[in-house]
Amino acid sequence: MDNMTESGNVPVVNATGNETAGNATAKIPATPEGMAIAYGSLVIMAILPILFGAFRSVKYHQDQKDSGEKPETMSSKDAAMFPLIASGTLFGIYLVFQIFSKEHINLLLTVYFFFLGVLALAHIASPYFAKLIPNSFPNMEYHLIFTQGKKEKKEELMNYEFDRKDLVCLLCCGAVGVWYLVKKHWIANNLFGLAFAVNGVEILSLNRVSTGCILLGGLFIYDIFWVFGTNVMVTVAKSFEAPIKLVFPQDLLEKGLAANNFAMLGLGDIVIPGIFIALLLRFDISLKKNSKTYFYASFIAYFLGLMMTIVVMHFFKHAQPALLYLVPACIGIPLLTALVKGEIKEMFSFEDHPEEKEKEKKEEKEKEKKAKKEK
């Protein structure tokens, strides 16, 4: 996954793997004050999406249960395969950049992330716009349905309800998108990045703690291999322009909003641990003890792992694969907490949507009974 890095007076690798010659003629050297502000801001921007996304995930999953909608969750097999699929994708992108023009590929990426970023930001901001816009606003509700086929073959592709307040929100988010499209400003980048992170933690779903451990363990190896073992990630990231990282300038005090000497953190280092932390919050709620012990334990573990990443990176003056520190912390501390509390069995037997499997088992039994009767 992406790494946490700093820019300085020596060549370094940034959060997406970009190698940067940070000489004094191109960039103002980072001061201790500037570095403190940059890293403090990155830490805050990293923990906020996890905090908000985790609690939003509780509501999201409850809404799915109430509506009877079958959630899309990652199985243990999917979790084990994910690092291999990610590796193949990364190497495929590397080959594409070797063959085709970097400018043309990045043009397509910019347009793609423009639309994706606007929708992600609108999804987060829409409830706040609904509260801010006065009741006197001439609102009107709309219902957009898109289907394919006829009669028995008719299939629903899209079913979306919205109103004029949502359209106002979409226009404002579109303005942010145009700002990013034209200027590629770091604030616009961060707005999109934060929206992606919150949506990712909220919507992406792990169903079991064991699945989360498999996923994090596999990406732990993936991150180390592609950062330290090859130059593939570095080469791809040098060419890849997209809001897939959070950035904050270390020369903000000297250059203001025009600052360009960035410390960076990849979104993967937020979303991947974040969906595991969100699962532990839902586990806390399932225990019905009016406490959030495992959520707080994993949340503090993430913070400590992130701080360790910064310390090691600053000491060695080199980019670090953040999951190298985040994975042991986010898995180890909650497991240790469960051992101390004697709830390790409950933790690993917890399943976020058990009723789904129960329904499937009942349906299978009914089918078996019908088959036996027919025989």
Description:
With 375 residues, this protein is mainly alpha-helical. It has one domain (12-358). The chain is built from 13 helices and six strands. It has helices at residues 32-67, 76-99, 102-132, 164-183, 186-203, 209-229, 232-239, 252-255, 268-287, 293-316, 323-341, 344-349, 354-374, and strands at residues 12-13, 19-20, 141-148, 155-163, 245-249, 262-266. A two-stranded antiparallel sheet has the order 1-2. α2 (76-99) crosses α7, α3 (102-132) packs antiparallel against α4 and α6 runs antiparallel to α11 (323-341). The longest helix is centred in the N-terminal third of the chain and has 36 residues, at 32-67.
What topology emerges from the helices and strands here?
Layout: E1 12-13, E2 19-20, H1 32-67, H2 76-99, H3 102-132, E3 141-148, E4 155-163, H4 164-183, H5 186-203, H6 209-229, H7 232-239, E5 245-249, H8 252-255, E6 262-266, H9 268-287, H10 293-316, H11 323-341, H12 344-349, H13 354-374
Antiparallel strand pairs: 1-2, 3-4, 5-6
Give a summary of the structure in a few sentences:
The protein has 375 residues and is mostly helical. The chain has one domain.
Count of individual helical segments: 13
Share of helical residues? 55-70%
How would you write the strand order of the largest sheet?
Answer: 1-2
Largest sheet: 2 strands, antiparallel
What is the first-to-last residue Cα distance?
54 Å
E-strand count: 6
**How many domain units?**
1
Order of helices and strands: EEHHHEEHHHHEHEHHHHH
Radius of gyration, rounded?
Answer: 23 Å
State the shape.
globular
What percent of residues are in strands? 5-15%
State the low-pLDDT regions, or none.
7-25
Main location: endoplasmic reticulum
GO molecular function, one term: aspartic endopeptidase activity, intramembrane cleaving
Subcellular location: Endoplasmic reticulum membrane
Region (Disordered): 352-375
